[in-house]
Each structure stands twice: as C-alpha cells, then as structure tokens.
Amino acid sequence: MAQVKQAIQKSLRFYDIGFNATDPVFRGFYHEKQRHVDDFDAILSRALSKGVQKMMITGDNVVNSREALKLANQHDSFTCTIGVHPCQAECFNKNPQGPEDYLHQLEALVLEGKKTGRVAAFGEFGLDYDRLHYAPAEVQKTYFEEQLKLAVKMQLPLFLHSRNAAKDFFEILEKYLPNLPKKGVVHSFTGTIEEMQQCVDHDLYVGVNGCSLKTPENVAVVKAIPLDKMLLETDAPWCEIRPSHAGHAFLDSKNVFDTCKKERFKEGCMVKGRNEPCNTVVVAEAVAKIKGIDLEELADKIWENSISLLG
Asked: Which residues does the record give as a divalent metal cation 1 binding sites (predicted)?
C-alpha cells in the first residue's frame, strides 16, 4: 500500500505560489548568524520529489524583488513576483531619489523579468491594517494605488495581500481590475467567508496555506472556496500547518522527511519550524479532506488554475 501511495504522489503536480526563497534561513542564516550549511539545493530537491514542479518566489521590495528575479532566472522550476509589500510601503518615501524613482526601479525589474519570462505576477502588495507600526494606512493606500497603476501598465496578474483592510482594499482595487484581464490572487487568505466571497465576486483566486487553516472558522472558509478559484501555497518559511491548527486534524499522514533543530542540522533533514515548498502537498492533503474530494482531483484542478493565472 505504501508503494502505491508513493507512486500516486509522484504523479501529482503542484505550483507553490508563495515561496519566500530570498529569506536567509534557506541558506542557514537565522538572525544574521549561520547555524548550519546552505541547504537550498536540498530544499528544491525535496519539493520536486513531492510533485512541486513550479514555485513562485515572492518579491516584497526592490532589493528582494531583484534577488527573486535573479533566483528565478537560475532555476527552471522558479518564477517570481515583483512588488512592494504594504508593511514595506515606507520604502517609497525613504528612497533617497524619491518615490517616483522607486517606482521606476520596480518597472525596470518587471520589464527585465518579462523579457526572460520569469516574472509571473505583480506583488506582493496590498493593505495590512494589522501591522500599521510598519507603515500608516494612508501610506499603504497611496502606494497600493501607485503599484496598481504600474501593474495595469505591465499587464501582469496581481499577487495581493489583505489583512483587516477589506473595505479600503476592494474600494481601491475595483478601480483597476477592469483593466486587468487575468485579475490575480489574494494570497495567504485568512479573512471571513464574506471577504472570501468578495474575492470570488471580483474574479480573484484565493491562496490557501497553513495560516488559512488555523481556526475552525478558517476551515469553514476554505471548505466554501470554489475549487476553480483556489490556489495553494506554503508562504515558506512561514505558515506551516502546526499541530495546534484546526487544519491539522485533516492530515492523514505526517511529513515523510525527517526534521531536526537548526542547531543539530543533519544533511537531508528539514529544519524544524522552517516551512518548505515540499509541504504544498501537505496543504493539498488537508484541503482535499476538508472538501471531501480525492487528493488527485484537487491537485489536477489547482494545477490547472495555477497555470491559467500564472502561465
């Protein structure tokens, strides 16, 4: 039976739409100290062994977007996003040459990425009112809109972030969606069922990861997401499905890879507490169980959705 299950898993295809691959933890650095050797190649190998054929690296400011594009150009399995996260919206104002120059830098990166075919979406950007200590709401709204103008100019699908800001988020977004045929995805979704329905009504996809499965209310929302409007992600190195999460009850099996603490790193091990793209299959397993459908059916449809949006 184990051999049959393994053979089925090898036939599954996944697109992890949220991989923060520029984070130093994937090179063994934690809080600026190297705790173990660079195991990035092993992370990629584990993902591929679990059917994660494509991974979209998240850009959240100019520096990280540049690094994301560099990585995407190096691996056939990678694409990337280019944009500025709402919590980093002050980057525009802090840029020595001013906000317009920062937008020009973003545009230049997008054009470079379009030439190589490696930029798949514009983002991560949007609004986050849970963390206003990073950037005030008015600053976030200003540069959400400025980036939307650039996304329309570049004709890229959107990789969106929304936390406790649904009213302002949709009011701004609605002005630009008619000029974006592919719309986009609200990633790492943790909102209410009403907010999920707003996403669907605006023809947006909804990105699901471990953080989307924390509470029973989250699980009810995920169950209600139409399968043709869902995408899967890990948001690695964050958002794993933890034993304390309501979604954990829907997992039939544990991760097949051994784990170890970073201080006791062993080659071939996943680092405990550091999420990886290979866990896309774990998210898929939980969602399939929640929806009461076969894992293969879910994987096929989500792959189709992913390619339809991101190419």
From this structure: 124, 235
Categorize the per-residue pLDDT at 5 as very low, low, confident or very high, splitting at 50, 70 and 90.
Answer: very low
Q: What would the pLDDT profile of 53-80 be if each residue is shown by its tens digit?
A: 999 999 999 999 999 999 999 999 999 9
pLDDT of residue 256: 65
60 is in an annotated binding site: no
Whether residue 38 is annotated as binding a ligand: the answer is no
CATH T-level fold of 2-310: TIM Barrel (3.20.20)
| 296 belongs to an annotated ligand binding site | no
pLDDT over 70, % of the chain: 95
161 annotated to a ligand binding site: yes
Apex 290 CA angle, 285 and 295, nearest 5? 35
Asked if 290 contacts 252 with a C-beta cutoff of 8 angstroms, the reply is no
User: How does the average pLDDT of the chain come out, rounded?
Assistant: 95
For the stretch 250-262, what's the b/e string if a residue is b when 16 or more beta carbons lie within 10 angstroms of its beta carbon?
A: bbeeebeeeeeeb
